[in-house]
Sequence to fold (461 residues):
Amino acid sequence: MSSIIAAPDASHLPLHLVEEGALDAVTATLSEGHANWATANGFTGALGQLCILPGADGRPSGALLGMGSAVKRRRGRFHAARAAAGLPDGDWSIASHMTPAEAEEAALGWHLAAYRFTRYKADKPQKARLVLPAGVDSARLAAIVAGECLTRDLINTPASDMGPEELESAFLHLATEFGADAQVIRGDDLLAENFPLIHAVGRASSRAPRLLDLRWGTEGPRLTLVGKGVCFDTGGLDIKPASSMGLMKKDMGGAATVMGLARMIMGLGLRLRLRVLVPAVENAVGGNAFRPQDVLHSRKGLTVEVNNTDAEGRLVLADALALADEEKPDLLVSMATLTGAARVAVGPDLAPFYCDDERVAGALAEAGRAVADPLWRMPFWDPYETLIEPAIADLDNAPSGGMAGSITAALFLRRFVTGTAHYAHFDIYGWQPTAAPARPKGGVGQGARAVLDALPGVLGL
Fold:
């Protein structure tokens, strides 16, 4: 059953959003019995505090949700969705005044709170349903939720069931659903088609590497999305310790996120020409694995000295970006769970992004704030270019020293985008380490909703 219903009626139960310190203003609108009940239960409006109001027949007749202080609310998002798990079965409508942005966030958060990953184990569904707040576009909401749920499902699926072949199947299913054209280049055909870096990273796995390519739309500006699809990352011959390998099923989070974003775009029927590129590989250990100090050739013609086989994501992205750049799209976006350095810099909740264009960067940052999809701009810092230039090749995939790791990775990728005017790279985490409102523990999309919101201004849609 859906967690959102569209049309309000008198049978719906009111949910009052109460700021801390403003309880009297709300209880003044309630019956004396309900006001006394809230006071007797110690309800203060503290953030997340829930008080269910009883009816004369003992069944719920409404509820109060604490929204805390303005300072506390700034420490998180999707606060109205805190009620979703605690309310009993019923159709609930928010009785408090909300701005359009607050109404959209409440509806989206409520719906995302209902997400369950049930492929391997049943889970209790969310019982409370929300009446769609006035002014919220139900079709847009449905498209965004469907895209985010696709992203979460892909990331949450372990590598045993989400290798390159299974990611390809999900990719082709997405293309079929929306009538898009899709092509796949697999195995040694990658060498014949000049994708040597993708082949080098994935060749040691028993599951063949491949490049997934989707096209949709026949008119409008060109948007190309490139997502890192490393379905599992052992680190290769520079093998990861067990403590670092535990979450590597999520190393295809960039691919999952661009596929979710593509689903939003196609679901909304935006007037643009969309292309999605996903290099899908498994970085495995084998006799034919690429080695430290190997020098690899790229589609762009640049040579790359491998100084760490665990810095493989930038290699597969490089060939895909070079292909995307040959078409010179109006906007090129790459997304990848690329560096631990980004997590050290900004933690798991912020998605750092890189963009040289002030207009595009500003639009993305503003969109992130508007749709509760937080971003943080990082610099393409030109003085660090020398760090990615080794002695015997054009580029170094893993500069020594360990400093500015996210920046040097972004600079590496930028070397493969020379003909496209507007390029943005997102170094995402793709994982919610602890449950939060609208975000259960597990795979999560980052940056997709911000990009979607920014597209009209950036591309003139």
User: Anything to note?
Assistant: The longest strand covers residues 273-283. Residues 4-135 form a domain with the Leucine Aminopeptidase, subunit E; domain 1 fold (CATH 3.40.220.10). The radius of gyration is 24 Å. The chain is about 35% helix and 20% strand.
